[in-house]
Design goal:
Blueprint: E1 18-25, E2 28-35, H1 39-42, E3 47-51, E4 57-64, H2 70-75, H3 79-85, H4 90-96, E5 99-105, E6 110-117, H5 130-137, E7 148-156, H6 161-175, E8 181-186, H7 194-197, E9 201-202, E10 214-219, E11 228-231, H8 237-247, H9 250-253, H10 259-265, E12 271-278, E13 281-289, H11 294-300, E14 310-312, H12 329-332, E15 334-336, E16 338-346, H13 357-364, E17 370-376, E18 389-391, E19 401-407, E20 415-418, H14 424-430, H15 437-450, E21 459-466, E22 469-478, H16 482-488, E23 505-513, H17 521-531, E24 536-541, E25 553-554, H18 556-562, E26 564-566, H19 576-579, H20 586-589, E27 596-601, E28 610-612, E29 616-619, H21 623-633, E30 638-640, E31 643-646, H22 671-675, H23 679-682, E32 683-686, E33 690-694, E34 699-702, E35 707-709, E36 712-715, H24 742-746, H25 763-778
Parallel strand pairs: 7-8, 16-17, 23-24, 23-25, 28-30, 29-31, 29-36, 31-32
Antiparallel strand pairs: 1-2, 3-4, 4-5, 5-6, 6-7, 8-10, 9-10, 11-12, 12-13, 13-16, 14-15, 17-19, 18-19, 20-21, 21-22, 22-23, 24-27, 26-27, 33-34, 34-35
Keywords: Cell projection, Cilium, Flagellum
InterPro entries: Acyl_CoA_acyltransferase (IPR016181), CFAP61 (IPR038884), CFAP61_N (IPR032151), FAD/NAD-bd_sf (IPR036188)
Domain Cilia- and flagella-associated protein 61 N-terminal: 61-311
Length: 781
Amino acid sequence: MVTEFGSVSNGEANTTDNIVCSFTQKRQKVSLWIKFCSLSEINLRKMRTVTSDRGEEETVTVRRSESADAQGIDSLISPSAQAVFGRVNVIHVLEKANLAVTLASEKDDILAHASFFDHPVGDLVDQARWEPFLQKHFSTENCTPLNTLFLHLFVAQPNFAAASAKEIMRAVFSAVTELEYICLVSPNISDLEAALGDVFEPMQRLTDPGPQCLALICHRQEHCPRLHIRPSRVEDHDDIMSIFEQQTKLLSVIDQPYFLAELIEAQNEETHTAVCQVDGATVGFISVTADVDLKQLRHNFELSEFNSLYKRQQTKRDASAPTEPREDEEETTQTQTSASQQLFVIDKNYEMRSGDFIPYIFKLFPDLDFCVITVPTLSPEFPLLQSFLRVPPRATSSLLSELYIFHRAGLRPVEVRPAVAADRPAVSDLVKGLRLNESLLQDLDCFYETRSGRDGVPLQAFVAQVDGRIVGVLIIRDEQDVEFIRAHYNIENFIYFSHHGYEEHAQIRHFVLRPSFHHFTRHLFKEVLRLAHTSCLYHRAYPSHHSQENSCVYHLDFVLDCAVPVRPRRQIIYPLEELGINAPSRRITEDQAPFALSLISRKLTLEPKVTVNARIVVVGASDAGLSFLEVLCFCPHLRFNNLTLISTHGFPGDYSHEDAGFLSTSHAYSSRDLAQLPLHSCVRVVSKKMVGVNRKSKHVLVSGGEKVPYDHLILCTGLQYQVPCPSGVDLSQPVTNSQLQPQSARRRYTGPLPSNLFTLNDLCDCMAARRWLCANFVELE
């Protein structure tokens, strides 16, 4: 995703790829290559120019604030800023802000800073109750937690204050697509700085005298208005082509010089084109059609959750008709419900506003429920796709594309609130058929009855609803093992632990959200953190064979898209008996079942990840292969969707620890180490043996005839011991190895293996050897 802000990333991806969009014109399919921003460009900080009050121009960067900025920000706090925002601990503000933005010069000098929260300044009102408070006293009926942020701090160099405030507001509205309002609500009544007075206006009061506070509001329309979209005309041809020419060598790829004009002229009820405009200038173009090849999509992608993109219709049967169903009856009672985006381009300065096209598309097709987009696997994910759900491909899929889908219902606003007893039937219907759904319902009942689980730990339950319908549920519990987590996992790579109270840490017990509303996942977590008065949410992923795995999480990918994976820390083995009273707390040294840990904090709720759809196939569960996958899975701001491990006997962590002691070639990954890595959640495992590689078609052939396609192939088979092959020499004749024929040394043994001969290449071989030794020696004693 291209954003206005640079993000710190532990991983790099610097390939520039193209997106292939296709459209049908006069029954001829033409492929159009559109170059989008490469993944490495996503972390670049956009340069802008601001002008001081004296007319001086300065080239600046708008980026996310870092802890290293704290000293510079603190030096800019003036008495007037302190009078409005109160006394401020800058590190604490940076740690707890949902979004913190810094304006820096080319020399990285800080010109301005602003911090935004999801609740008003100070203790004017409880952070979970600000919405009814504002609606009671001010004309803010349109302000909701989804579309509103609150300014908690703004500082700037005096000469650049006015320009910096406008630039920061423009950048924030551009980066947070659902944002409509920025409010400044503070219990500190003071004269506002001129720079803020230019961007904020007073809220209209409904009560007199009302609360004694400062109440101001800033509207998106003044700084980053939504795009104006209208049907395209042939007269738009030159303007649209100029956008293509800025981003791709379009004219050298397309053989038909007037293809765009013909596409616009060919519009009908099933095919539409549109342009978006800013101040009358065309900045984007889109083409959509209702002519979708659903058969191909159903064959290659898992669409069962979306009724295979069909809408079932109930038809009345004639009483005289035969009672047995006909073969074609299913086809006649289904209606296609999807439109496909064929062609899309937008000026890079407005690409964050790409989502403005989505409501317009559904207005063009009022009877359709889905919009689908297919893009090549090597293409970077562009901003429009941030609102779409990626549909996983089938294991047998041979397409070189990824499918993204958006449901019409996703246009409706979502409300997050604490669960009440009346929600129980709707939640039960929501989780029906899901794995471990009974565990979720039991915890929900415990919450209703005692507000705590069966172990006495406090619980909180929240639901997400759209138009009064429950579409999601999230149950959290107080984190009881904060010290254990701090000691065993590197959570301080992501948070300043001292700025989070123990009561602000919570654990995700259950999470369920309908796929059509997946793009609200971050908002759901942001709202739960606010309503629950917490700042950190942890998700524990236990191996599937562990008894501790009793959380109902659906879909897990939704959680992983928002959370950062936390590395385990290497532990000191303490001689507890020798240390006596000097030994560390039992909370730290106690033995717990291993788990992979993910973290969601307040400052991560508005920071999207960079999605990588390239198909990366690793052959061999050796130390090298597992280490390679570990590095990819622990990239905090990268999300790899297509990681595949091909291993003869599957994932090595699926075996018990006592069977793992035979493999002398590896001490890098114990069963506990593997359980603490997020590989199970992020990597697809193919438990078969590679028998061939087709480099031309770019697929791996495995035993059983299955083909595993790849974009990048990593061969990490490790050291493979082979069964020694008899040389066939006459034992009565003394022969040395040097006298053997070279061919005999390279031969492989293909005959039946002796029952007492073992080659230890993986944990499965170790288990077989252990069982044989136990059966033939240990148990006989």
